Amino acid sequence: EPEVTQTPSHQVTQMGQEVILRCVPISNHLYFYWYRQILGQKVEFLVSFYNNEISEKSEIFDDQFSVERPDGSNFTLKIRSTKLEDSAMYFCASSETHSPETRTYNEQFFGPGTRLTVL
Amino acid sequence: AQKITQTQPGMFVQEKEAVTLDCTYDTSDQSYGLFWYKQPSSGEMIFLIYQGSYDEQNATEGRYSLNFQKARKSANLVISASQLGDSAMYFCAMREGSYGSSNTGKLIFGQGTTLQVKP
């Protein structure tokens, strides 16, 4: 069964450093997302990406964040200058488009996550 | 504004018994989808079940069923015949509207319910 993959599984970085989190969505999917989950808290939407551009971003997604789909398979989240409060689990997700009435159209497949620790 | 509320921070259930996890939502959109995800201690997000707002029948997926009461804006998850492996955090999530230029498909999550299954 196809799956979303994310690398690395765990990233430790110093405050102020840049990090790039990588995701490979399911190949025929067209909508891509990043979410984050601070330890013990709920999952929060960061950004959605469709047709090679950001379609929506949350207030968390400030100028320090950027996303890119550099080729036909990878989807990356970059944090330019990490802060302590960026420590969280970051999930990539993707979904396909079909009839809006079918489950497969609506299901967002999540990757296993990257745990980011900022020291 | 769209909102998901899970009022049970933690629940216990005896193995082999059924358990209901509560979820209420708030939206002004006529078309929306409701999701349940399971997050075990390993951290990944596992899709369990989906209910579309126009679905007349409650969704079922194996031991999982969704008790959808549209007028009350509730979408409770019922797990039948609980197993030890069901111990995890459970998140209810909502997506408003249909995919298109004005809707990005982002999911809004509730705070989650921790379920512990006792042997």
Count of helical regions of chain A: 1
Strand content of chain B: over 45%
Alpha carbon gap, first and last residue of chain B: 41 Å
The number of distinct β-strands of chain B equals 12
Summarize the biggest pleated sheet of chain A.
Answer: 7 strands, mixed
Give a topology summary:
The complex is a heterodimer of chains A (119) and B (119).
Chain A: E1 5-7, E2 10-13, E3 19-24, E4 31-37, E5 43-50, E6 53-57, E7 65-68, E8 75-79, E9 88-95, H1 103-106, E10 109-110, E11 114-118
Parallel strand pairs in A: 2-11
Antiparallel strand pairs in A: 1-3, 3-8, 4-5, 4-9, 5-6, 7-8, 9-10, 9-11
Chain B: E1 3-5, E2 10-14, E3 19-21, E4 24-26, E5 32-39, E6 46-52, E7 60-61, E8 64-69, E9 74-79, E10 88-96, E11 108-109, E12 113-118
Give a verbal description of the structure.
The complex is a heterodimer of chains A (119) and B (119). Chain A has 1 helix and 11 strands, in the order βββββββββαββ. By secondary structure, chain A is mainly beta. In chain A, the strands form 2 sheets. In chain A, strands 2, 4, 5, 6, 9, 10 and 11 form a 7-stranded mixed beta sheet that branches. Chain A has a 4-stranded antiparallel beta sheet with strand order 1-3-8-7, with no helix packed on it. In chain A, a hairpin with a 5-residue loop joins strand 4 and strand 5 (43-50). The radius of gyration of chain A is 14 Å and the shape is globular. The mean pLDDT of chain A is 90. Chain B has 119 residues and is mostly beta strands. Chain B has strands at 3-5, 10-14, 19-21, 24-26, 32-39, 46-52, 60-61, 64-69, 74-79, 88-96, 108-109, 113-118. In chain B, the strands form 3 sheets. In chain B, strands 2, 5, 6, 10, 11 and 12 form a 6-stranded mixed beta sheet that branches. The mean pLDDT of chain B is 91. Chains A and B meet through strand 4, strand 5, strand 9, helix 1 and strand 10 of A and strand 5, strand 6, strand 10 and strand 11 of B.
